[in-house]
Design a protein that fits this description.
12% helix; 152 residues; Cyclophilin; eight-stranded antiparallel beta barrel; mainly beta; 10 strands; 2 helices
């Protein structure tokens, strides 16, 4: 019996319940299969539950850092760049400045306005499909209360 997981097909949807309200994301395994599999596993195990959005700027929100300060998680996930553009509502993975070929395995970000300077440099793995107004209302310290996989 094989232990290799089945490839993810379609575009899974995930609801992130925050202290400000729910956000629905649509994931893109066709663009970043390892990243989508990693975050679906993380979210299904509740590993982001009760963690905060530790970074909130005029153009981005970032969360799911186990340490809560931008230094947590491991840089073990391969960076999967694509032709996707980081337009408003895009979902990406945090990484250190170097090495560029690995990304953080827990911290994700959502851009609040077009941020095309990230194109080809960071892993794009989905987008917000509802509640961009919730994203725009988040402040540092707001919590990720829970995550629910809506469709796989």
């Amino acid at each position: 019996m094989s232990t290799t997981p089945e490839p993810i097909t379609g575009r899974p949807q995930v609801e992130i319940s925050t202290s400000k309200g729910p956000i629905t994301l649509e994931l893109r395994p066709d663009l970043a299969p390892k990243t989508v599999a990693n975050f679906l596993g993380l979210w299904s195990r509740g590993e982001c539950d009760n963690l905060t959005f530790h970074r909130v700027e005029d153009w981005v929100v970032q969360g799911c850092d186990p340490k809560g300060d931008g230094t947590g998680g491991n840089s073990t996930l391969p960076t999967e760049t694509s032709d996707a553009s980081f337009t408003t509502g895009s979902l990406g993975v945090a990484r250190r400045a170097t090495p560029k070929d690995v990304s953080n395995d827990s911290q994700f970000f959502i851009v609040k306005k077009d941020s095309t300077f990230l194109d080809g440099e960071y892993t794009y793995f989905g987008r917000v499909v509802s509640s961009m107004e919730i994203i725009n209302s988040l402040a540092v310290g707001d919590k990720i209360q829970s995550t629910t996989i809506l469709t796989k």
